[in-house]
Write a structure and sequence with these properties.
Blueprint lengths: L3 H5 L2 E2 L2 E2 H34 L7 H11 L3 H13 L6 H37 L4 H30 L4 H18 L1 H16 L7 E4 L2 E8 L3 E6 L4 E5 H6 L2 E3 L6 E9 L5 H16 L4 E11 L4 E9 L4 H21 L18 H6 L1
Antiparallel strand pairs: 1-2, 3-4, 3-7, 4-5, 5-6, 8-10, 9-10
Helix pairs in contact: 2-3, 2-4, 4-5, 5-6, 6-8, 10-11
């Protein structure tokens, strides 16, 4: 019967039983402790999010979120790496382990980086509630570009760690990138335009836009195009580059709506009644809480009427609110002027009748 010391000397795949025991113990402890720590921190983070979110520092919150987003596959890779420190393998097996661990490590780094980007976007949204719609409309574009950059860097760094010479690869990608850029310059221009929209935020989802002769509400801001829903119901798809090249009127950013119109009264109106009209108009407009009076003046003599210019503001940009208020003002003006015995004037049309002389009729 072999002694205990002899048992420890039994070899398997070039390593004795003592080394395998230490490696197995390290693997099991690591694969037990790390998930427990991850679960504890995840539970604490959710508790912070529910109760103490304002008192948690951003760095602590981000660290806890990164730990929570750590994949179980990565934890297995860490456990295998730590256990393999006690073992010696053949070069081929060592190479396979190295490749697997390096790939899993850089994949996890990429996931952490994307999580950090999303966390930064959420912080921006919470710190500026007024920009929620703007940020929502640009999240897809920001994440798309950030994903391209992050995963490209992850791929290059992983290849570099695996011993691949990346300088010739970068040179080849540079030359190939120029060729691809020339071939798809329209797509790239739209992509850059989408980045400009995401960063400059000239409009957001839900805004009502007028772009050249097209008008509609923004439904989607994509990497290449923006989609509008027109007033007549159809969807208008416009390239982001075309939008930025156009003069865009954003009705969604209106804080209030200005109204200016002329009122024509008869030339027979009494001068005292003319002098009283601005005050009466002011009283009518100020009686409506959604309106803010600006001015009313007798400005000019028209061809058939004395013209007053009336200007007021609707304090909300909603068109229906404006239309309802304008209707109330118009009806009140008609009623008030009739009470003042002031008459409106209608445009007069001159009809000229030309009669031919007998000589011309004979000639015709």
């Amino acid at each position: 019967m072999p002694s205990l010391g002899g048992v420890w000397q039994i070899e398997f795949l070039g390593n004795d039983l003592r080394a395998w025991t230490l490696a197995l113990a390290t693997f099991l402890v690591t694969l037990t402790v790390l998930p427990v720590v991850k679960g504890y921190i995840s539970a604490r983070r959710r508790r912070w999010a529910e109760h103490d979110r304002h008192n948690v520092h951003h760095a602590i919150g981000l660290t806890a979120l990164l730990i929570e987003r750590t994949s179980r596959l990565f934890l297995w890779a860490v456990a295998v790496y730590l256990a393999s420190r006690y073992l010696t393998f053949a070069p081929r097996i060592e190479r396979v382990l190295t490749v697997g661990i390096v790939v899993l490590f850089w994949m996890q780094v990429g996931l952490w980086a994307m999580t950090a980007v999303r966390y930064a976007i959420d912080l921006r949204r919470k710190s500026s509630a007024g920009l929620d719609a703007l940020l929502t409309s640009s999240i897809d574009v920001i994440l798309f570009v950030a994903g391209l950059v992050i995963w490209a860097m992850v791929l290059l760094l992983a290849l570099d760690n695996l011993g691949v010479e990346i300088k010739p690869l970068l040179a080849g990608l540079g030359i190939g990138g120029i060729a691809v850029a020339l071939a798809v310059q329209t797509v790239l221009s739209d992509l850059l335009a989408s980045m400009s929209i995401a960063l400059d935020k000239p409009f957001a989802i839900g805004d009502s836009l007028k772009v050249d002769d097209f008008q509609g509400t923004v439904e989607h801001i994509g990497v290449k195009s923006t989609r509008l829903r027109s007033l007549s119901g159809e969807q208008i798809i416009m390239g982001n580059t075309d939008i930025l090249k156009s003069r865009v009127r954003n009705f969604g950013r209106m804080r209030e709506r200005r109204t200016a119109f002329n009122l024509g009264v008869s030339y027979d109106t009494d001068p005292k009644a003319l002098a009283a009209i601005p005050a009466e108009i002011r009283q009518i407009v100020e009686a409506l809480p959604e309106l803010r009076f600006d001015r009313c003046h007798f400005l000019t003599y028209g061809d058939t009427a004395l013209l007053f210019e009336i200007v007021f503001f609707t304090t909300t940009p909603d068109f229906n609110t404006y239309a309802d208020a304008q209707q109330k003002v118009n009806l009140a003006i008609i009623e008030r002027l009739r009470q003042m015995k002031v008459s409106f004037t209608a445009p007069m049309r001159a009809v000229v009748v030309i009669e031919k002389s007998p000589a011309l009729q004979d000639a015709g």
